[in-house]
Amino acid sequence: MTRSQNMPAYAVFAALLASAGLPIYIHAPKFYVDEYGVSLAALGSVLFALRLLDVVQDPLFGRLSETLRTRRAAGVLIGAGVMALSMLGLFAVPPMLPPLLWFALMLTGVFSAFSFLTINFYAQGVVKADRLPGQGHLRLAQWRETGALLGVCVAAIAPVMLGAVTDAPFAGFAVGFCVLALVAIVMMRGEWVSDGLAPSIGFRAVLGDALARRLLLIALVNAAPVAVSSTLFLFFVESRLDAPGFEGPLLLLFFLSAAIAAPVWGKLAERFGVKPVLLSAMVLAIAAFGGAMALGPGDVLAFAVICALSGATLGADLTLLPAVFATRMARISPSAAEGFGLWAFVSKFTLAFAAVTLLPALDYAGFDSAAGAGSPPEALMLLTLLYAAVPCGLKVVAIALLATTDLKET
User: Model's pTM, two decimal places?
Assistant: First the structure.
């Protein structure tokens, strides 16, 4: 395989980044609640505060990525090292400070490095895709997002699976993450090249483009349902379905369905166009996920069907929207680093907002993670409403935004 066609490297690096993104929101809060007794409200506040930090640092990382364009390999190596060490500190090292403060410090390292690496990776993808034959952005997106979804699958299930063979599953997860980081860096060596013909145009020019702004807004609203459901997934399975032990298999089913479906959505978009395919996937997501409202204790099989269907629709969201945005960046901001600095902030802000609003709300309603299905009925009902109804409502808004957006300019 020639260097210009080194697509598996992009899939593996995407898997690394994905492992440090959504799964950390799934695992870290519950780990610190169970192991160190930190309150849900406190954890939610910390997560939101870290995303407020991103308001400043993500755009700055975009500017830094642009500045380091000719030395991107060195910057990526440093970022990967910081992320790996912070992951070890988060899960494998007992807190050296009060648990909440340690949680905040280690997550700052993980998420800051994640931001910097994501911006560099997607900006490099714009350069790469322009050198590929045919619809390069869609083709790269299929490899990249399929790799990312497989990474999420492994990261989501790994602590549960490791729990069967070790008393420290999260420490094992952190070590495995470090190994993956090493493999990803080696595979991507030589890919971090700059396009000398791609000048920086700054944030103002990106935000000054009407279509780019619209795509960022759609990404924000469309990512919110996943942020809500991901934040509450473990609590919903354990407490509403009263099915402790099924979290791992159900998470795997959800993300594996997304990974399998991602290249299919890409092929459909190449044939029928991005907008109609993405709208179809969004409608299917509401139809599938809305059924979670009616579930109760013991409804594991029905929920598994919902996980498979809603996971498949997630494959469209994660593959097609980034490809559309990358295509637009190739036209208005070929260096892309600053554009994806904004994209990174938008993508992560939804997770933080979900944490700071949902977790304290459950805490206030009397929800007790340790009690499982024994939490007060009103707390369990609120959990169901937040987990199932809120994402569907947000998805309706995303559909309306996309339906009224002209993508022909991309």
Answer: 0.71
Burial 98-125 (b: 16+ CB within 10 A, else e): ebbebbbbbbbbbbbbbbbbbbbbbbbb
Q: Are 300 and 248 in contact (CB under 8 A)?
A: no
Q: What is the DSSP string of 136-191?
A: HHHHHHHHHHHHHHHHHHHHHHHHHHHTTT-S-HHHHHHHHHHHHHHHHHHHTTT-
On the CB side of 242, CA atoms within 13 Å amount to 10
Beta-carbon contacts of 369 under 8 Å, excluding residues fewer than 6 positions away, are 30, 33, 34, 40, 235, 238, 239
Cβ-based burial of 168 (10 A; exposed 0-12, middle 13-18, buried ≥19): middle
Long-range contacts of 249-254 (CB under 8 A, 24+ apart): 249/157, 250/300, 250/303, 250/304, 250/307, 251/26, 251/153, 251/156, 251/157, 251/160, 252/153, 252/156, 252/157, 253/304, 253/307, 253/308, 253/311, 254/156, 254/307, 254/308, 254/310, 254/311, 254/314
Instruction: Let me know: does 129 contact 136? Beta carbons within 8 Å.
Output: yes
Concatenating the DSSP letter of every residue in 212-278 gives HHHHHHHHHHHHHHHHHHHHHHHHIIIIIS--TT-HHHHHHHHHHHHHHHHHHHHHHHHHH-HHHHH
Q: What share of the chain is helix, strand, coil (3-state, %, to 5)?
A: 80, 0, 20
Q: What is the dihedral of CA 138, 144, 149, 152, to 10 degrees?
A: -150
Please give the mean pLDDT across all residues of the chain.
83
pLDDT greater than 50 at residue 119: yes
- Cβ of 293: how many Cβ atoms within 10 Å? 12
Comparing CA positions, the residue from 218, 150, 136 lying closest to residue 184 is 150
For the chain, give the percent of residues with pLDDT over 70.
89
| Separation CA 168–CA 155 (nearest Å) | 15
Mind listing the pLDDT tens digit for each residue in 179-224?
Answer: 999 999 999 988 887 655 455 555 666 777 788 889 888 988 888 8
